[in-house]
Amino acid sequence: MAQAQATFEQDNSERSLRRNFWRKVGRVAANIPFAEDLLAAYYCAFDRATPLQVRATLIGALAYFVLPLDAIPDVLPVLGFTDDAAVLATAIKLVASHMTPAHRDAARNALAKISADPH
After folding, report:
1. Structure confidence by residue, pLDDT tens digits, 17-74
2. Taking the alpha carbons of 33, 71, 92, 47 in that order, is the dihedral positive or negative?
3. d(CA 78, CA 75)
4. How far apart are CA 101 and CA 90, in angstroms?
5. Do 22 and 8 contact (CB within 8 A), yes or no?
6. Cα gap 99→72, rounded to integer Å
7. Which is nearest to 34 in space by CA: 87, 98, 109, 71?
8. Global pTM value
C-alpha cells in the first residue's frame, strides 16, 4: 500500500512538473538564451533510457527553473534567469555525456514550434 501511494505521488509530481515546465517555457522561451539547452535537458530527463541518477539531476534543475521562488526572481529584467541558467549549466555539465543528438533535435523542434506559435 505504501509503495502504491509513493508511486501515485511521484506520478502526480512528474505530471505537475511537466505541465508547469511547458507553461513557463511557453512564456519565456523567446527571452532566455539557454532555451535550447533547457529543452534538451527536459527531453533527456524524461527519456526512460536515461540513467536514474542523470534523470534525478536534470529533474532537480528543471524543478528549480519551474519554481516561482528562487534566488533571483525571474521577473527582474536581464538578471532574473541567471540563477536558473547557472543551475541548469551545472546540471548539464555533470550529465552532458547522456544528452543525445535525439534530445537536442527534439529541443530544436520544440523551440521552433514555440517560436512559430507563441500562444
Report:
1. 899 889 888 888 877 888 999 999 999 999 999 999 999 999 999 988 887 665 555 5
2. negative
3. 9
4. 19
5. no
6. 27
7. 87
8. 0.77
47 Ramachandran zone, left/alpha/beta (phi>0; psi -120 to 50): beta
Residue with cell 522561451: 29
Q: Which band of pLDDT confidence, cut at 50, 70 and 90, is reported for residue 4?
A: very low
User: Which SS3 state, helix, strand or coil, does residue 7 take?
Assistant: helix
- Return the C-alpha cell found at 13: 509530481
Provide the H-helix boundaries in 29-100: 35-45, 52-66, 82-95
Question: Which residues, in sequence order, are CB contacts of 72 under 8 Å at separation 6+?
Answer: 79, 80, 81, 82, 83
Identify the burial level of 29 via C-beta atoms within 10 angstroms of its C-beta, where 0-12 means exposed, 13-18 middle and 19 or more buried: middle
Q: Where are the domains of the chain?
A: 33-116
